[in-house]
Specification:
The complex is a heterodimer of chains A (466) and B (140). With 466 residues, chain A is an alpha/beta fold. Chain A folds into 3 domains: 54 residues, Alpha-Beta Plaits (2-Layer Sandwich); 272 residues, no CATH class; 108 residues, 3-methyladenine DNA Glycosylase II, Chain A, domain 3, CATH 1.10.15. Chain A contains 18 helices and 11 strands. In chain A, helix 12 links the parallel strand 10 and strand 11. The longest helix of chain A has 29 residues. The mean pLDDT of chain A is 92. In chain B, 32% of the residues lie in helices and 27% in strands. Chain B has a single domain, classed as 2-Layer Sandwich (Heat Shock Protein 90). The radius of gyration of chain B is 14 Å and the shape is globular. Classes of the chains: A alpha/beta (466), B alpha+beta (140). Chains A and B meet through helix 10 of A and helix 1 and helix 2 of B.
Chain lengths: 466, 140
């Protein structure tokens, strides 16, 4: 599988070529070329910001449909704690879990139960690795992908423990095989995801060779059906929940850290804030930290772009739900031990490098600096790149030209027409004259006309899209 | 008169992650006995708060729950530091819970006030340095 597999995709027929997404993308992965947005798959970290911002709904996430469960003899649902925060007045998780069974799943394994095991493993990992503190949470795949391409110095700080969804999938698959005697391929493990980032994780995981999650469904798509089944369950909800306060808290920012019983932690949410923290962490601005929890979405997983509820409302609901829960219900046992640690490391991917080697990069950097001085510095986005600097980098990589800059083009036209008028004056004054002046004049007119055509065609492109 | 059912729980101070399991178990048992949902809720909340307090402040202890047809009596006995000022401890918002567990939602200072609020009777016997015994009654 492609290590840069992505869930976030563009629907070209819906894209109007506006500049909203290029401005919002935290890794500057999007360019508008020929009137359509293009996502650079090496830069993209599947955070979903472009899906959030696109006014034309031209950015989407790919995920599986619910009827995929029919392909399996036995299907297991993995509901995350963020799912529980989507419902009004829910005071018993078991209602959701039983509704999932009515919906067609044969078994349910809570991600929050696996999260409690991950919390336990993290506590003991921190205790036994005190010389390498702090550790950075690896639960949010977008954060891990961001570090992989942009913060190589922080790769050794990544907590080498599988995210709860992976541990849940492993345990669920094993439990299903034991209960049914079926081979693994006849059992389908389905994650109900709050975000596209987990879809990408499942197809191209980090820290493990192959994910045990077989399919990923979107919370927002399952939600309406689930609601109907929850009404049917209501009063006789069988007690199947295996998680407590710690597991449920994972759904929101700060939740993972709260399960570590230390106040030497930092929790940041929202991709821009995450980047700021990582920059500071790289500069070693923090002392005395044990753990850094980072979530790409505002509010944590409850803020995922595939959820339905406002993340701040969801947080209140989650708090209410966990209020009188036991601290934890799931504990580390022999059944989980083997599924917790990472089995492969994360490699730095130098995708933002300007050249293939040091010398080339250095020369290109100088070119970028020179170009930046010439470009207007307005970061208007009209060229299709988010900033003038990004355009300069595209130019030295050979992916764009200076003429893409609308101000450069205007300046050029201005200069040419000035020269033409000087020439015309000269002819008039008899300084230059006769036949030899005409080819020069014609050349100027041709150049102006070319510039105008290129400007026109760009304008037309945008008009045609409207 | 039917005999009372007695449930006994040893609350371990060693593993904070087990806190709240005893009250969760009592809740399950009361439900299977067909006790009214309102009474279950009161018992569950009051005992939960008491159980958490025993783990956070008193290094564990013993909880005894007597269920009879007309009432549920919970006795929470610990050998902790005792409560120096009961009046202060009963004030809503007063808390001495440590920082590292506050982000789990503990330490709001509602433990004792909620225990009083959700029970029909509550008595506190506390001796500094020896321990605390809290008796709570919920009528059904």
């Amino acid at each position: 599988m492609d290590k840069f597999y992505h869930s976030v995709k563009l629907e070209p027929e819906l894209c109007k070529g506006c500049i909203n997404c290029i401005k919002r993308c935290p890794t500057q992965a999007i360019r508008v070329r020929n009137g359509k947005a293009q996502i650079n798959s090496k830069f993209c970290i599947d955070c979903g910001e472009c899906i959030r911002i696109c006014p034309h709904h031209a950015k989407t996430a790919s995920y599986d449909k619910l009827d995929t469960i029919r392909q399996y003899e036995y299907a297991v649902a993995l509901p995350p704690p963020s799912l529980y925060s989507q419902f009004n007045n829910l005071d018993d998780v078991n209602i959701v879990l039983n509704a999932l069974k009515l919906m067609g799943f044969d078994d349910v394994f809570e991600v929050s139960a696996a999260a409690e095991i991950v919390s336990e493993a993290t506590r003991s990992y921190i205790k036994t690795h005190e010389s390498s503190l702090p550790f950075i949470s690896t639960a949010c795949p977008s954060v891990v992908r961001l570090i992989r391409v942009r913060f190589p110095n922080l790769i050794p700080q990544l907590l080498p423990i599988n995210p709860p969804v992976e541990v849940a999938a492993c345990m669920a698959a094993e439990r299903a095989m034991e209960a049914t005697g079926l081979p693994r391929e006849k059992i389908g493990v389905f994650f109900l995801s709050p975000c596209p980032s987990k879809v990408a994780y499942v197809k191209a995981p980090l820290g493990t060779e192959k994910s045990q999650v077989d399919h990923v469904l979107a919370i927002k798509e399952v939600y309406p059906q689930l609601l109907a089944y929850m009404k049917a369950v209501e009063d006789d909800a069988e007690e199947i929940s295996e998680s407590g306060k710690i597991g449920i808290s994972w759904g929101r920012s700060g939740g993972e850290a709260s399960g570590l019983f230390t106040d030497r932690y930092l929790a940041a949410d929202g991709i821009e804030n995450v980047i700021r923290v990582l920059e500071d962490l790289e500069d070693q601005k923090f002392a005395n930290l044990e753990f850094v929890e980072l979530n790409a979405c505002n509010g944590g997983c409850i803020g995922g772009v595939l959820t339905v509820e406002n993340p701040y409302v969801a947080e209140v609901k989650l708090k209410r739900l966990r209020k009188y829960m036991p601290v934890a219900r799931s504990h580390m046992g022999d059944d989980a031990q083997g599924y917790v640690p990472w089995t492969t490391g994360v490699q730095f991917e130098p995708v933002f490098r300007l050249g293939d080697n040091m010398m080339e990069s250095f020369a290109r950097l100088e070119q970028v600096e020179r170009l930046c001085k010439r470009l207007p510095g307005l970061d208007c986005g009209s060229c299709g790149a988010p900033t003038c600097k990004a355009l300069a980098e595209d130019i030295v990589r050979g992916e764009a030209s200076e003429r893409d800059c609308i101000y450069y083009l205007r300046e050029n036209l201005h200069k040419l027409s000035k020269e033409v008028s000087v020439l015309a004056d000269d002819i008039n004054d008899g300084i230059k004259g006769g036949r030899e002046a005409f080819p020069i004049l014609m050349d100027y007119i041709r150049r102006i006309s070319n510039e105008m055509t290129s400007l026109d065609s760009r304008m037309n492109e945008q008009e045609n899209d409207d | 008169m039917a005999e009372a059912i007695r449930l006994t729980y040893e609350i371990s101070p060693d593993d904070f992650t087990r806190a709240g399991e005893a009250s969760s178990d009592v809740k399950k048992k009361l439900r299977s006995l067909g006790v009214s949902p309102d009474a279950i809720r009161k018992v569950a909340i009051a005992m939960y708060e008491g159980e958490i307090n025993m783990v956070i402040h008193a290094e564990g202890g013993i909880i005894t729950v007597d269920i009879s047809p007309d009432k549920i009596v919970m006795i929470l006995a610990d050998k902790g530091p005792g409560i120096p000022d009961i009046e202060q401890a009963m004030q809503a918002g007063w808390s001495t819970a440590p920082n590292e567990i506050r982000s789990l939602g503990f330490g709001a200072g509602m433990g004792l006030p909620n225990m009083k609020k959700y029970t029909d009777e509550m008595t506190i016997d506390t001796v500094i340095g020896k321990g605390t015994t809290i008796t709570m009654v919920v009528k059904i």
